[in-house]
Write a structure and sequence with these properties.
mainly alpha; 2 domains; 8 helices
């Protein structure tokens, strides 16, 4: 999946970006018509280069392209939207992505807009353990992927239509 500018910015602010993420974003940005010296450098980096070097080129490319850095709250929201979009990919490991969204919730003081992911992850954990999904009743005798995709679709819609 393409790494959008809001997604890479969010991963950067939250300390979750890896060398490959920066490189993928740079290549996608160049394909989309963006260009700068450090964007080219970043796109041409080897995936085994230090993440610190990749991050430095990313910071410089962001300045060259006049991309403002989002605040932490906006970064959390952008990253959560990116993860939800990844869930909609039919080949995705949706359970791992739901777990990442749940982690984003509990590591950031349980913001209301992420609580459903926390509950869904709890329900999926119950099902894997062979128990009734007390954390998310809708999972009982249902297709977990379909439930996760439905939640992702509603989440993207409600969080993409905000006034910012």
């Amino acid at each position: 999946m393409t790494i959008t500018t809001p997604a890479i910015q969010a991963r950067h602010v939250l300390g979750r970006a890896q060398t490959g993420d920066y490189i993928d974003w740079a290549v996608d940005a160049m394909v989309a018509g963006f260009d700068s010296p450090n964007l080219r450098m970043l796109a041409g980096l080897d995936r085994f280069v230090s993440p610190f070097e990749a991050e430095e080129h990313f910071k410089r490319a962001r300045r060259e392209l006049n991309l403002p850095e989002p605040n932490r709250e906006q970064a959390q929201r952008d990253y959560s939207i990116h993860l939800a979009e990844c869930i909609l990919d039919p080949g995705s490991d949706f359970e791992t992505l739901v777990a990442k969204l749940s982690e984003l919730c509990y590591t950031n003081d349980y913001p209301d807009y992420l609580m459903e992911w926390y509950s869904l992850d709890d329900g999926l954990t119950d099902i894997r353990a062979g128990h009734y999904p007390h954390g998310y009743d809708e999972l009982y005798h249902a297709d977990p992927r379909k439930i996760a995709c439905d939640v992702a679709t509603a989440f993207i819609k409600s969080n993409s239509e905000r006034d910012c």
